[in-house]
Design a protein that fits this description.
Elements: H1 21-24, H2 52-62, H3 68-79, H4 83-94, H5 97-102, H6 104-120
Helix pairs in contact: 2-3
Biased composition (Basic and acidic residues): 1-28
Biased composition (Low complexity): 29-49
Region (Disordered): 1-55
Length: 121
């Protein structure tokens, strides 16, 4: 039996069930992933190789928050990780050129905040 004989992919390598490649990838960001929240504007730039979780972390940072409690609650509920882990991931993203290409406004703003905090130390 040859590969694709049962209709998994067409001659161009696309899934025969009509899904696009991006819909066949495994979901990694977890429940309530912020990147696709209803009413939220589309993420700026191209995803440029960032994981869904990385894009979701940047999406959380794009939002305005009434206070720290609301943001920490959203981090736990939307991303399923602790705020400590979230800030570790965010800090690494600020040094990732793919994150800068994906969302330069947010990444540059956060880099300025981080630099100002380091100067105060």
């Amino acid at each position: 039996m040859m590969h694709g004989e049962h209709g998994e992919h067409d001659q161009q390598g696309r899934p025969r069930d009509g899904r696009t490649e991006e819909h066949t990838e495994e979901h990694t960001a977890g429940p309530g992933d912020a990147a696709g929240a209803p009413g939220e504007a589309a993420a700026p730039g191209d995803a440029a190789g960032l994981s869904e979780r990385d894009r979701a972390v940047l999406a959380v940072e794009r939002r305005g928050w009434p206070g720290p409690g609301a943001k920490e609650r959203a981090i736990r509920e939307q991303l399923g990780i602790s705020p400590t882990r979230y800030y570790q991931l965010l800090n690494a993203l600020l040094d990732d050129p793919r994150a800068l290409a994906h969302d330069p406004v947010t990444v540059n703003r956060l880099r300025r905040v981080r630099a100002a905090r380091r100067e105060r130390r």
